[in-house]
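queue> holo job accepted (magnesium ion)
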Amino acid sequence: MNQDQWTAVDRYITGLLVPPDEALDGALRDSVAAGLPPIAVSPTQGKLLHLLARMQGARLILEIGTLGGYSTIWLARALPAGGRLVTLEVDPRHAETARANLARAGLAEVVELRLGPALETLPELIAEKRGLFDLIFIDADKGAIPEYFARALELSRRGTMIIVDNVVRNGAVADPANTDPAVLGVRRFHQLLAAERRVSATTIQTVGSKGYDGFTLALAIADLWPSSGAEAVRRGVRLGESQVMLAIKIKNDLLKTLRKAFGLVAAAAAAQLLLATQNGCAPNQSSAAEPMPKIPDVPQDWGRSEQHESSAGH
Ligand code: SAH
Ligand code: DHB
Ligand code: MG
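queue> job finished
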């Protein structure tokens, strides 16, 4: 097994399952022309991201690390009408190239590109109560993956899928002697993941045209998310579908406490009142619970239309 074979097989699969596409092919072409590093996800990986986003039914996606917007296009094309993608990029030249590529793809109105170090733009998103995101793709500088993951969790709801690229690094992830900052980042990330009870995760090794690497899939799991009713309120989570059980639990806890103090009837009334106040204070920000504003339909021969499936030929 060697790189030539991995590349040949990727080419074979791409030739059959990833048809030529002017927006995607043009994004790679113009990224190379602009001197961007050739490190976008491969076509087969891009399509995997697209399929995962569709399986997830994602309406709101966050990407950390835009480059020329190649993975951005794959992900944004999985969104239904009215869906949105926020992508974070530190390099102005990368951002400029990405904006042009996204505009050509008809996604200028769907994608919001934020320029700046992700360690600054992520707290902005959190402060603005953006989200909660349905899918988060982490693909920026590898040394900071643990920090990005921690902030991604703050922008997640239960059921959010977090995907992290480049976590195997030619096998170096399992070499404790390696001191490359990127490798230290992916090792620290796995340690964090092992201790994180709010997600269920695995890492898959991959080979292909980009060599030997891998990605992590982490799912924010039910029951442990959010960790408390108080946190749900603090995070601005509205009482939507998955929060109803939580509300009942908060109410029951509250009832127990108040009953000790005031007796049954007074306690029930007080709990109702308190919950109503809390709900009124909680801004309604959950993408899953509230439809995103409609945008004018852009011409699409992809996404959920049947046209896409038939033009893709499979
Ligand atoms: N997701 C892209 C590839 C991203 S490459 C694709 O598959 O098509 C990694 C990107 O992360 C680069 O464009 C790099 O400039 C950006 N990046 C590096 N450090 C960053 C930081 N601190 N904040 C935001 N973006 C960063
Ligand atoms: C690098 C970054 C990536 O996102 C990737 O997929 C491959 C390599 C890099 O910075 O070298
Ligand atoms: Mg990558």
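queue> The pocket of magnesium ion (ligand 3) is lined by residues 41, 139, 165-166 (CB under 6 Å).
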